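From the pipeline queue, job 12 of 40. The input is one protein chain; the requested action is below.

Action: predict structure.
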Amino acid sequence: MPTIAYLTMASLAGFECDDPLTIEPLARHGIEVALTPWDQPTDWSRFAAVIVRSPWDYQKRFEQFLNVLRQIEASGTTLWNPYSLMEWNLHKSYLLELQQQGIPIVPTVHGRNLSLARLKELPGELGSDEIVIKPIVGAGAHRTHRLRFPLTDAQLSEAVSDHAQSEYLAQPFLRSIVDEGEYSLIYFGGELSHAILKTPKPGDFRSQEEFGSRLVSITPDESLRRHADRVIAAISPQPLYGRVDLIRHNGGFALMEVELVEPALYLSKSPGAAERFANVIARALTRS
């Protein structure tokens, strides 16, 4: 029985993770799963493949995490998604690259070493008195600030401090994220598996489950499906798994993020999703 590793973290306490739902379906394919913390010394060559699933503390040790991914790839073991694709996806400037390919994105300004003067310019540049500042590398809303102007210098100081020596993205805060929610479409092997609508809890804007958002399984309409399909089609090489996060904007949809490293896949929200993911993994293993 071949063994694959799900790359995870030492403790998932406080996180919602439904990857174990795939263990039984994979066993029916003759595949065993080892849940393996990413920062634990490991002989990666003993696995038929390593699938990055829930290392949700990596942003605190980003270079160490990248080095582990490089070690896995160098071991000769198949890494999913491929290292080159994950490295590209970890740096959120990929949004601007996709925009150049004709993908509608949430209006985005990419900057470095944020100053107070520059922060005060961004609302006018983005055409909104409410903006979001986030790190160019990060996950789980870490170091993300929602700012409604006018604000005092003291009120802006935390956002400036968080991004004064790093790259950042600035975007307008779009009311549709709280009025309607964020749409997540999950793809396995380039094919749509299922879709989720995530609505932040009242008074919040973060869509992650850990912050109390409400998740509902949906059937995407033609427009939503078409937007997400365009995003997946623009990515090369094709990811084994991926999640496309969209928000309604300007009469259509705009890309918030495409998650190709360690996305929550919401397997428990869609009947058969765990089996579909297991089937894609099994087929990919036979080709690797």
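Job complete. The chain has three domains: 3-82+277-287, 90-105+176-266, 109-172.
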